[in-house]
Design a protein that fits this description.
The chain is mainly alpha-helical. 53% of the residues lie in helices and 3% in strands. The chain has two domains: 33 residues; 251 residues, Chloroperoxidase (Orthogonal Bundle), CATH 1.10.489. The protein is built from ten helices and four strands. Helix 6 packs antiparallel against helix 9.
Length: 309
């Protein structure tokens, strides 16, 4: 009887030791993965540390890259990417853009390095990889070596309805900014203290949402794309703009002509990662809570209050 109890106790101790060993191995693996990720983040941030420019450095740089665009150039629904291509920070024709080229251009104007690198690596260049019908199965998981800017106009991948500066894809080419929408933004801003701030952006986006549902039978802005548009809000006001605002006299140059104004310069330090994560949530909440309606346009002058329905 005593031997059986002793044997059972030894077996129990062995099982406990095995569980402790397994748990130690799991902790070791988790620690190794976290350590690797931390090292990668540090590496990316250090490499990007010297990428941003002072205002004087930027002015000297942009003088060497004047605005130029041909009708045959590929362009995207994203004004920021078009700006970078129009000034030669990306290939001017908008084609065959590598991940390194796109990353370097975005970091140059202050995009958060780690988030940008992760998004391009895990989303953009995999999402837009074109798989041939006879390609092996594993090629579905391969990143595209390059992308063209007009590929970003493929509907409901990253591009979505309810843009501030474009009509929905069912109504027109989303690579083309709409002059009346951009000028409406300018007019709205002039009547709201001369700056496009967070509240103005939320109100204008809410109005565009109403317009989209009326003018486009295929209009769709699900939760995923609500957050996508909220990320655009952060990029618009914190990278093209600054500290949650955009100057009224910059709106048409940046969003309609898609060229850098002479007195514009990028962030001198990269957009903080925490702010890049929190700001879109604030934008999303602000859009949802905006009380703006189609009737809100009646305060604008006749040439900009047209409702696109």
């Amino acid at each position: 009887m005593g031997k059986r109890k002793s044997g059972a106790k030894q077996q129990q101790q062995q099982q406990q030791q095995q569980r402790r060993s397994q748990w130690s191995f799991k902790r070791l693996m988790v620690g190794a993965i976290l350590g690797f990720l931390v090292i990668q983040v540090i590496r990316i941030e250090l490499q990007a540390a010297g990428s941003t420019k002072t205002p004087d450095e930027w002015r000297a740089l942009v003088k060497q890259r004047p605005y130029a665009r041909l009708p045959t150039d590929a362009r995207s629904p994203c004004p920021m990417l078009n700006l970078l291509a129009n000034h030669g920070f990306l290939p001017r024709d908008g084609r065959h853009i590598s991940k390194a080229q796109l990353y370097d251009a975005l970091v140059l104007v202050g995009a958060p390095p780690t988030i940008t690198y992760g998004f391009l690596t895990t989303v953009v260049y995999r999402m837009y990889h074109r798989v041939a019908p006879d390609a092996p199965f594993w090629t579905n998981f391969v990143a595209a070596p390059t992308i063209d800017l007009d590929m970003l106009a493929i509907h409901n991948l990253i591009e979505h309805d309810v843009s501030l500066t474009r009509l929905d894809s069912a109504l027109d080419d989303t690579a083309i900014p709409q002059a009346n929408l951009v000028r409406r933004m300018h007019q709205w801003t002039l009547q709201h203290d001369g700056q496009l701030d967070m509240q103005a952006e939320h109100d204008l986006r809410k109005i565009r949402w109403y317009e989209s549902t009326l003018s486009n039978p295929k209009s769709h802005l699900g939760l995923l794309y609500q957050f996508s548009s909220s990320t655009e809000c952060a990029l618009l006001l914190d990278i093209l703009g600054r500290d949650g605002t955009m100057r009224a006299d910059h709106i048409e140059a940046l969003l309609l002509d898609e060229r850098f104004p002479d007195d514009w310069y990028p962030r001198e330090k990269a957009y903080p990662a925490l702010q890049a994560l929190v700001r879109p949530l604030k934008c999303w909440y602000g859009i949802r809570k905006s009380a703006a309606t189609l009737e809100s346009l009646q305060a604008l002058s006749n040439d900009t209050q047209q409702i696109l329905v």
